[in-house]
Amino acid sequence: MNNPEPNAPNEPLQTRVEQVLDLIRPGVQEDGGDFELLSISETGVVQIRFLGACIGCPSSEMTLRDGIARNLRERVPEVTDVIAVE
User: Fold this and answer.
1) What dotted CATH number matches 13-84?
2) Alpha-carbon span 75 to 6, nearest angstrom
3) d(Cα 53, Cα 83) in Å, to the nearest integer?
């Protein structure tokens, strides 16, 4: 079966966001961390929670900004912001 591209507009927003997060997750897990998708607002704000080694890690802000947020905005145009919550 063919996996659709994460930016395929016919897929639901949550599915497309999860597909992008699944592309990023292995790199985060290599460092002993992880994250979970908590919600996506109607205005396109994605909330995630860091898990494992990411909790309190100084690099988690860079992971959020340069990895997760950048990739989501590039691949899922409806995403307006990505925030980490505890």
Assistant:
1) 3.30.300.130
2) 6
3) 18
Quote the pTM value.
Answer: 0.83
The residue among 86, 6, 42, 7 whose CA lies nearest residue 64 is 86
Domain boundaries, the chain: 13-84
Given a cut of 80, whether residue 5 has pLDDT beyond it is: no
Residues contacting 3, CB < 8 A, separation 6+: 19
- Residue 30 identity (one-letter amino acid): E
Q: Are strands 33-40 and 45-52 parallel, antiparallel or unpaired?
A: antiparallel
CA distance 25 to 62: 14
